[in-house]
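Researcher: Can you fold this with manganese (II) ion in place?
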Amino acid sequence: MAETLFISDLHLKPEHPDTIELFLRFLREQARDANRLYILGDLFDAWIGDDYDAPPIPKILAAMGALAATGTDLCFMRGNRDFLVGERFAAITGCTLLDDPCTVTIDNRNVLLMHGDLLCSDDIDYQKTRSLVRSPAFIEELLTKPIPERIALAAEFRRRSGEAISMKAQEIMDVNQATVVQTMREAGVDLLIHGHTHRPNHHHFQLDGREATRIVLPEWQEGRGGFLRARGSVWTTEWWS
Ligand code: MN
């Protein structure tokens, strides 16, 4: 039976080697037998460009490439932390890069995949910044800057976003249900999978008179990972450490 796995929000960084080890073990063990692995953004806590490859980046990319070489399809969607992932990353890891949003077919079902930040439409400041920094012109200019400058910019970006988050109400940083409904209606799906909010759940609701589901992927923490498994028509969120 075909098996598909989904992960997001690992926020890998050198300061947390345990989470990196957990991910490498996940690639060797759980993901090995899957037909396909979807990574829906924020695999890295920061990604400043494919030309920056200080340790532990090469080890992580090589492990992903090794999985792809054994026959598991790897698909990667950029998140707000790793939106600078590009073609070189894709070539080394064997990942297919996905647009956000993206509709795929799993077990004869159309499924909408997103990182999730686009659904947080109540956070107007965030959405404004997002559309600015995700524009091709901005990205092109950013990638021409020297690496030390990009490292400094990424740190500044994280600091400012941390400050903004601490000032905002919790509800503002969750998805807006009207945006969820509208996005799913436009895509013609009754299943949506995303990460970003760090509020793992399987939400069931009515969409135009039909049962609809929104699955939120868990974030990884030191010593604990989580993933969504689709096996036939059964969808389960599983934890492991
Ligand atoms: Mn995110």
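Model: Folded with manganese (II) ion in place. DSSP finds seven helices and eleven strands in the chain.
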